[in-house]
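Here is the promised in-class demo. Please do not try to memorize the tokens; focus on the logic of going from shape to residues.
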């Protein structure tokens, strides 16, 4: 959690110059769902703990079909 006291407006501090939203897609894998940002893994949604140990589904890794 971050606490910020400033006289500058938050929109000036946290401005986002890239206004395009990332393309989020979901892929169903055996035992879970992958959330992808383009070809990069954002997160894994699963109840199987073994999938979280698999390096193919590690966040920020490249996903290959």
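The designed amino acids, position by position:
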């Amino acid at each position: 959690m971050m606490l910020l006291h400033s006289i500058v407006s938050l929109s000036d501090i946290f401005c986002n110059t890239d206004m395009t939203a990332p393309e989020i897609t979901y892929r169903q894998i055996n035992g879970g769902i992958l959330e992808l940002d383009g070809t990069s893994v954002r997160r894994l949604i699963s109840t199987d703990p073994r999938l979280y140990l698999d390096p193919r589904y590690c966040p920020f890794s490249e996903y290959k079909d």
